[in-house]
Amino acid sequence: MSDVLTVTDFSVDYLGEQTVHAVRNVDLTLGRGEILGLAGESGCGKTTLAYGINRLLKPPAVITSGKAVLHSREGTDIDLGSLTGEELRAFRWDRVSMVFQGAMNSLNPVISIRAQLEDIFSTHRPAMSKADRRTRCGELLERVGVDRNRLKSYPHELSGGMRQRVMIAMAMALEPQIMIMDEPTTALDVVVQREILLEITRLRDELGFAVLFITHDLPLLLEISDRIAVMRAGELVELAPAAQLYNSPQHAYTKLLLGSFPSLTGERAAG
Ligand SMILES: Nc1ncnc2c1ncn2[C@@H]1O[C@H](COP(=O)(O)OP(=O)(O)OP(=O)(O)O)[C@@H](O)[C@H]1O
Fold it and tell me: Right CATH number for 3-104+176-270 from 3.30.70.260, 3.40.50.2000, 3.40.50.300, 3.90.76.10?
């Protein structure tokens, strides 16, 4: 499998009276079409790493070392750190998109779902005809399991789960190579969460994008990820295929983390 993203020696500090070294010298690669899980307890730096890769950090955060390079479908390498302003904005929806925990609340309450979806195409694909845009929006919504009748709805008329699905549809709209998902289903109930996760893995199989999936929920990651990276206090302590990480964890912290989920240890005792 070729790689779509290479992150090398990536470090981020939050400057302040007490500087926080939130991400320290992280190296990782993301394969084309791979689901890479990023696990670790709250505050270990997962979100900072994801935002850093996508250049979404704001002061007092500073990238102190390293880089993130995207290997495009066309065969060129793009250093995300070299992009500025407009380039970066275009790049974000087009090549790398992001769905975060509260994303469903970032839909504009006074604009219909149709208009919000269409806006992505009118901004990023200005040559697309109005008819094509309409068709595409309907298809996108159905792809994430929402009836296209909902295009005319306003966000408050949809459940939390549906709104989050709309956000996933928006993130997929331009067929990016990478989707970064930061606790995308955490605010939803377990059944809805499951449905959406199945949908994401199915869509990945269908469309071939890679996913960097961030959550503190290790059992969930074991289920959906190809490989899992474990982060602790800003550092990646282990990165291995999911089954290998579960069956023969190498790092003491990975063992501790696995042991902290009763469902996992219960299954182990039973097996
Ligand atoms: N704006 C900020 N200013 C200073 N320190 C920050 C800021 N944002 C985050 N941090 C610190 O950086 C570290 C990493 O935080 P981050 O949010 O990346 O962790 P996380 O693993 O994503 O946690 P969670 O799962 O709770 O979101 C933490 O110690 C946090 O307190």
Answer: 3.40.50.300
